[in-house]
Amino acid sequence: MDITQYTKNIPAALLEFVREVREHSPVAVQSIHVVGSVLTPDYQEDLSDANSLFVVQEPQTVFLDFLVGLGKRFGRQNVAPPLLMTEKYIQQSLDVFPIEFYNFREIHYTLYGNDVLAGLEIDPGFLRLQCEREIKAKLLWLGRVYLESLADNERLSHALCGSITAYIPLFRVILFLVDRNVPPAAVEVIAAVGSILDIDTAVFRQLYAMKREQAILQSDDELKFLYTTLYTATQRICDYVDAMDD
Questions:
Q1: pLDDT attached to residue 2
Q2: pTM flag (> 0.85)
Q3: Which fold has domain 4-113?
Q4: Domain segments of the chain: what residues?
């Protein structure tokens, strides 16, 4: 996945945050990487957080306190708190969080230090297993969130829209596992998954559009149709991923 053209999305606030860390950090930082939607066409300047991953020798309290001080200033500018990891943690977690590290590997830009993410070797079997677990967890979540909404349409609509951000990384992994090209844009990822699974992915496109537009469904009939369609599509995906193990 070529994300080079999207490095221009990296906001000045994040670059300033990184400069402050490099110049004033009380501990050595080994490398700094931009990750997440800021490196895709899906980035929304006024709404999306700018995410980063710092590789350190050890996340000492003095460093955490230093970042807290910066967070009070940069948090208001949509600069998210960085993920802090050691190289050892990364290497020992590829079997536990393969989807997360797959997406870090494919969508990152190194601002400082060695690029420790580009060469990560992730077992496809671990990817498939976590993908199955996440999709099946989505089915349980869908049942729970419907009950927890207590017939509050706005609450349910907001929850369903928010869920799309968790589907997209799973879809990228599915495409990777079947040796398909993984496009950077979420709408293209959704379309590609629909073609290989032979399912109607309109519900995912609708949720993606609603999230970007911060739209809410108030109609009982429309919301129930959206929910039912999403549940059915998720079940189809679950069956597909489960069968990949055969």
A1: 81
A2: yes
A3: Beta Polymerase; domain 2 (3.30.460)
A4: 4-113, 124-243
